[in-house]
Specification:
Citrate synthase, binds nitromethyldethia coenzyme A, binds D-malate, Citrate_synth-like_sm_a-sub, transferase, 22 helices, two-stranded antiparallel sheet, Citrate_synthase, Citrate Synthase, domain 1, Citrate_synth-like_lrg_a-sub, 2 domains
């Protein structure tokens, strides 16, 4: 049984100094952890029947309620503004940014357990929150950390499969290939072949998802060490948390870098359902493809430069600015460089968004991190100057709907500061984090019995004829 305890939560949040405006929104949704049970699976098992009932009621009582009109602009314009997906784990407000199960990023930073007092949230805590809608206790997070470590052994054939690729293959290609190779261990596939009843689908999906989340940092760090560190692999630490361990396996034991990785993995995990990677994962999973197949597909979408690859593009672009204009480039020179980029028919990477209409809060929290840990870093100063220089120029173009920076505008300079300088690798880090969001929703897709995704498409001729008819 789940209890809603908004009032006591409110005072708990207040005593931790959470800002009021956002708080009012989140309290409506947030469920407080009332159980000390540290087993995530049994918590989910308890939650699923009531959420199934909730969906059934929504369908039977309100199934015919209209959510808006579909215009030809929407059909031709990448479905922008068209509501068409159920995604429980997070919701994006165009002005305010992402909320994970109702919690904003600053609220997650205050409420989710950290490795040390006042530190960045542990991604395992976010996973617990996304899956259950409840803020976990430190004991629950520690238990989940341990479970993930226990599931992290990657079969040998996965390394051999990656090794079959040329070392020059893009890190995302190597990573997605590794994830495909992990698929041979899918519990869902085995259970389906044995004829599992549909009401039980979520159970092997849960098994696959937790194993996948546990193993992606191991595969990702293998790819990094293979390409950039002569294949000298660093084994997992037997007591570190998920984010700390990922930094460790990559070769970074600086406590500040480990904190950065915890923040990085937390904030990149989920961005509601319509972004290319989440939507791809959800679509592929709707055919009852298992979590490995679905997530590998999602990674291939993330590897596109308008989506996840933008973090690579941003650092490469910043480095090209430095190469051409020097580290202490003036704002005037920066403006010229931005115009040069635009005039050569390219986008300014790290700016703009399909849904957001203000500065991405994921950008803002990375800026906070930089102000705290690396205020004098020259590339951080350059990024700060771009924040002033780029938006007015994009507005001047007259077509850009959001001139403000997104998550990718900032992540590279933080990683670069701590020595992770290989920009081509950056999207792999995004991918590791995104497994948490996509797999959490996938478990709920199965638990709620969501159907095959199959929207209707039409031709230009069909649209022209339709317009003549309605004119
Ligand atoms: N630089 C130059 N032009 C831009 C930019 C930008 N940063 N952002 C939008 N535009 C252009 C866009 O290309 C389009 O031009 P055209 O009509 O000639 O095709 C026009 O402005 C209208 O686009 P919007 O409706 O504002 O944006 P849309 O929803 O289509 O695309 C992005 C969103 C994110 C793809 C776009 O803003 C972009 O290309 N940004 C740079 C790449 C980037 O940072 N991507 C990462 C997004 C976050 N993530 O991690 O996935
Ligand atoms: C994401 O995190 O997926 C990006 O910001 C893109 C999006 O939300 O469309």
């Amino acid at each position: 049984m789940v209890f809603y305890r908004s009032v006591s939560l409110l005072s708990k949040l207040r005593s931790r100094g959470v800002q009021q405006p956002g708080l009012r929104n989140s309290v409506r949704w947030l469920q407080v952890q009332t159980s000390s049970d540290t087993d995530l699976h049994s918590q989910l098992k308890e939650l699923i029947p009531e959420q199934q009932e909730r969906l059934k009621k929504l369908k039977s009582e309100h199934g015919k309620v209209q959510l808006g009109n579909i215009t030809i602009d929407m059909v031709l314009g990448g479905m922008r503004g068209m509501t068409g997906l159920l995604w429980e784990t997070s919701l994006l407000d165009p002005e305010e940014g992402i909320r994970f199960r109702g919690l904003s990023i600053p609220e997650c930073q205050k409420l989710l357990p950290a490795a040390k007092p006042g530190g960045e949230p542990l991604p395992e805590g976010l996973l617990w929150l996304l899956l259950t809608g409840k803020v976990p206790t430190k004991d629950q997070v520690d238990s989940l950390s341990k479970e993930l470590r226990n599931r992290a052994t990657v079969p040998d054939h996965v390394y051999k499969t990656i090794d079959a690729l040329p070392i020059t293959a893009h890190p995302m290609t190597q990573f997605a290939t590794g994830v495909m190779a992990l698929q041979v261990q899918s519990e869902f596939q085995k259970a389906y072949e044995k004829g599992i009843h549909k009401s039980k689908y979520w159970e092997p999906t849960y098994e696959d998802s937790l194993s996948l989340i546990a193993q992606v940092p191991v595969v990702a760090s293998y790819v990094y060490r293979r390409i950039y560190k002569n294949g000298q692999v660093i084994p997992m630490h037997d007591s570190l948390d998920y984010g700390g361990n990922f930094a460790h396996m990559l070769g970074f034991d600086n406590p500040a870098m480990q904190e950065l990785m915890r923040l990085y993995v937390t904030i990149h995990s989920d961005h509601e359902g319509g972004n290319v990677s989440a939507h791809t994962g959800h679509l592929v999973a709707s055919a009852l493809s298992d979590p490995y197949l679905s997530f590998a597909a999602a990674l291939n979408g993330l590897a596109g430069p308008l989506h996840g690859l933008a973090n690579q593009e941003v650092l490469l672009w910043i480095k090209s600015v430095v190469e051409e204009c020097g580290e202490n480039v003036s704002k005037e020179h920066l403006k010229e460089y931005v115009w040069k980029t635009l005039n050569s028919g390219k986008v300014v990477p790290g700016f703009g968004h399909g849904v957001l209409r203000k500065t991405d809060p994921r950008y803002s929290c990375q800026r906070e991190f930089a102000l705290k840990h690396l205020p004098d870093d020259p590339l951080f100063k350059l990024v700060s100057n771009l924040y002033e220089v780029v938006p007015p120029i994009l507005l001047e173009l007259g077509k850009v709907k959001n001139p403000w920076p997104n998550v990718d505008a900032h992540s590279g300079v933080l990683l670069n500061h701590y020595g992770l300088t290989e920009a081509r690798y950056y999207t792999v880090l995004f991918g590791v984090s995104r497994a948490i969001g996509i797999c959490s929703q996938l478990i709920w897709d199965r638990a709620l019995g969501l159907p095959l995704e199959r929207p209707k498409s039409v031709t230009m001729e069909w649209l022209e004829n339709y317009c003549k008819k309605v004119a």
